[in-house]
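Work package 3, deliverable 3.1, input record:
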Amino acid sequence: MRTLRLIRAGFVANLKMLGTSSFFLLTSTVQPVIFATIAFYMFRTGGRSGTLLYAALGAGMMGIWSTTLFASGGMIQWQRWQGTLELGVAAPAPLPLVYFPFSLANTVTGAYALAATLVWGRILFGVPLHLVHPWLFFLALPATLLSLGLFGLLLGSSFILYRHANALANLLEYPVWIASGLIFSLSVLPGWSRPISWILPPTWGARALRDAAIGGAVWGPLGMTLLLGLASIGASAISLGWFERRARRDATLSLT
Amino acid sequence: MRGVSFAVERGELFGLLGPNGAGKTTTIKMLITLLLPTSGQARVLGHDVVSDAREVRKRIGYVFGGDRGLYERLSALDNLRYFAELYGVSGRDQRRRIDEVLELVGLKGRERERVEGYSRGMRQRLHIARGILHDPEVVFLDEPTIGVDPVGARELRALMANLIATGKTVLLTTHYMFEADELCDRIAVIAHGRIVGHGTPAELKAGVADGRVTEIEVFGIDDPVLDRLRAVEGVTAVVVEDRDQKQLLVVQSTGDRELTHELLGRLDGVSVGRVASREPTLEDAYVALVTE
């Protein structure tokens, strides 16, 4: 119960902070529209019928991934800049539990990207919003967000270990779009890249959402999405534990 | 830190004084589990700060001076709600406790405003509210009045005295000697990572009580002249404080011997203003300790 209360408190606090960041609001509003427009024109030019919803969902996932990567990847560094990292570390609550709610809030705001893309696609390009398995779609959506929230915690806890994490974040945006097959099928990628695709939660989240929307076996991708989320918890705990010990030893928790 | 050792009694307000870089904040950060000591042992309420960090964290609160360490875009109330959950304050007690600390630090009525609009003094009061929100047994205050205006600083000192009245144990670091003199039951002075003096403020002052302090206003003094003053027999410390266009030379000496004439004689070529002789204060005791 106490854990859930802490998750809720961190989640609400971060949502309120994101809601007052004009930069975040602007990029969250404009970016999905751009992604959606590019994806729709690509698919329309390809002339394949019945793929517009596929494109819309992929473009939406691109937005969710971008939000997760930049907001959660830089989350712990941001806490250090504003002097609140020491407060999180010195609190009795376990460190993964302190920062998971922040990551989850980042990812959930990314869900707006998905909604905006679908609405934009419907209005401008006439994308049909008919879902083959509506209930499974609305099960796959929170599962995907949860998994990406946990993956965001792993990114944040890993990036904090590297001085040039911002450059790393910029580097990872497009490759993950490609490796996760967000706007095309993974079958067009070379065979050696498959294992990379398999360990990325966006790959399975996007598949689960598409299978629920267009038709397909939802449960497999859904299970993999959740499994990778669980694996992210373990990896984050190890990474954060390592970071905490190193930062306490080297006095790098604060900038002063 | 090298061989620093001290014990703080329950219900005591213990001061840690020292110049910049002496190791005060390092000591506090080791005690609140934010730094790992390379050797030695430290315990808070019987719990080891390395092997039992979580138990220590549950029982302590800490406040650092300065602007940072709060969620700027949130209101004071939202900050406190979040930190209440972080420190495991139960839902039943949360509202009451937040009201109590807001009342105590004088932020009641301003709690719904965003922190980014707060003055330095208000932020500092919010820091204290956050630090005591979970009703810790021990509170660490690291330069809590730094950068706060005189009226605000006085209010904060009253607040610190109030913490002791409510049964808390407080470890305070400060650069302001009058603050330490007014608040602390006992003081340890740290310089170059070592404790160079400890005792009650009265005991520390007694250490320089048999001496004199001569203050001389000067204009443009240089190191060779200072060395000439230090060479005067009986002089124990010479400190220069910048005061706008001029400087204040504070010369400490032992015994009752009147040194004013001799000191002025060695200020050959230096413009001299007001000259005064007075009894030593805690600040003089501190200066004598850290310049030894």
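The CA atoms of residues 143 and 174 of chain B lie 5 Å apart.
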